[in-house]
Design a protein that fits this description.
The model is unreliable at about 195-200 and about 405-410 (pLDDT under 50). The chain has helices spanning about 10-20, 40-45, 50-55, 55-60, 100-105, 140-150, 165-175, 180-190, 215-235, 240-260, 280-295, 335-350, 375-390, 405-410; strands at about 1-5, 25, 60-70, 70-75, 115-125, 130-135, 160-165, 205-215, 235-240, 265-275, 305-315, 315-325. The chain is globular. The strands form two sheets. The chain has a seven-stranded antiparallel sheet with strand order 9-6-8-7-11-12-10, sandwiched between helices. Strands 1, 2, 3, 4 and 5 form a five-stranded antiparallel sheet that branches. It is built from 14 helices and twelve strands. The chain has about 400 residues and is an alpha+beta fold.
């Protein structure tokens, strides 16, 4: 691996194209790849779908430069555009111990401490081999047990492994061309292999896993064999690369689906959390029920669509996404109601062991929860850091710890 300097305004999709043209990859592929920027990834402390192999943004960023209210902030190299540019320019350091770290200060700062102008990132050669696959399991609980075993593979995990619940699995099926035929074929295949699977594996309970392998041919072959054995252990059925690639790519379409649904009076969004393995299943179930109860309490039309997905895997637990969608036809103040339901869901998530955020950040909508995350002395320290870096509040984005709601809690 090497390091390379980048302009912060480059979008994810342009960064991928430029790196691919050079035979390289950064490996960071968030769902928002088409629209988000490198600087935005740093400011929000982002995570990507291939975190298992390439890490989160804090693992990828090596150096950065920031324009603050008192001038240019840099560390180690005054001009990172010259890194690797000549023999005398040196290179980004893999690790240093020189006191407080500028990268750590700015990653997750959400635009409140300065403008990130350029970044040095870790880069890799394009993988020799890239393979997609998919699997189905009898139930969500079985799927979670499979994911826990995959997490134990540590650095030998596939680049991306994502578990979707039955609601999201069925939604993905009906969105495909000739969806009725596909569902029937799937049911037929499940029934054909039923003797080799756990009893009760049906279309109404089955869950799906999408997999993406990247690395050398030897690495990928080893990982696919390990996954095959884990699927067998948990009564799963490998479903092939077509479904795996389609499930991976579907993530990029979510923003378009959300906007399309709004034309038919449906409002939908996603939110995420990190949760320990010991709390994962319980947290998901009670959060889904919370959303249904809040929807019913407000006498909203129809039934809400609520689903979950287990994505980035860690030794301690996993990132969990929730998706929910409601009809807002003839509903006044739909956006406010939607936010209230999400707020109630977030409260439940934290009550049952989930984090305030895994990688979406806090912004303004989650800032009111920060007094449960940061102690008052810490909040005071953060405000004094802000005052020291930006005494005139030039960068008044008012996100996270520096939002109006958080400032009110500090007073």
């Amino acid at each position: 691996t090497k390091a390379s300097g980048m302009k912060r305004s480059i979008t994810g999709i342009d960064l991928v194209a430029e790196m691919t043209r050079r035979g390289l990859t950064v490996g960071h592929e968030p769902d928002s790849l088409e629209f988000s920027t490198l600087g935005g990834w740093v400011a929000t402390k982002a995570s990507g779908m291939k975190r298992n192999k390439y890490g989160n943004i804090e693992d990828i960023v090596r150096e950065l430069r920031v324009v603050g209210s008192d001038g240019l902030l840099w560390q180690h190299h005054s001009d990172i555009s010259k890194i690797n540019g000549s023999a005398s320019a040196g290179s980004a350091f893999g690790r240093v111990s020189t006191g407080m770290d500028l990268c750590s200060l700015m990653i997750g700062s959400e635009g409140c401490l300065g403008i990130i102008t350029s970044v040095v990132v870790k880069i890799w050669p394009l993988p020799e081999c890239k393979v997609f696959d998919s699997a189905v399991f009898p139930s969500f609980g079985v799927g979670v047990a499979f994911m826990k075993d995959v997490a134990k593979m540590r650095c030998a995990k596939p680049a991306s492994v994502r578990l979707v619940d039955n609601e999201q699995f069925r939604l993905g099926q009906v969105m495909k061309h000739d969806s009725a035929g596909l569902v029937k074929k799937l049911e037929s295949k499940i029934m054909k292999y039923r003797g080799a699977l756990f009893f009760g594996m049906t279309v109404s309970s089955v869950v799906g896993v999408t997999l993406c392998y990247e690395g050398t041919r030897k690495e990928v072959n080893s990982q696919t064999e390990d996954i095959r054995l884990l699927c067998k252990k948990h009564g799963g059925l490998l479903a092939g690369p077509v479904a795996g690639r389609a499930g991976y790519d579907l993530t990029y379409a979510i923003a378009y689906l959300r906007d399309f649904a709004m034309t038919y009076h449906y409002l939908g969004e996603s939110f995420e959390t990190f949760v320990p393995w010991s709390q994962l299943e319980v947290m998901i179930e009670v959060t889904k029920q919370c959303i249904r109860d809040e929807h019913k309490k407000r006498l909203l039309p129809g039934l809400p669509f609520v689903s979950s997905r287990v994505t980035q895997l860690y030794d301690e637990g996993a990132c969990v996404y929730f998706y929910f969608c409601i009809s807002f036809k003839n509903v006044n103040n739909a956006s406010t109601i939607f936010s209230e339901i999400e707020h109630a869901a977030r409260d439940t998530i934290m009550e049952y062991g989930g984090s305030l955020s895994h990688h979406h950040g806090c912004g303004k909508s989650r800032a009111s929860f920060l007094d449960r995350v940061n102690s008052k002395p810490l909040r005071n320290v953060l405000n004094r850091v802000k005052d020291g870096i930006d005494p005139h509040n030039v960068f008044g984005a008012k996100n996270g710890a520096f939002s109006n709601s958080s400032a009110k809690n500090n007073s």
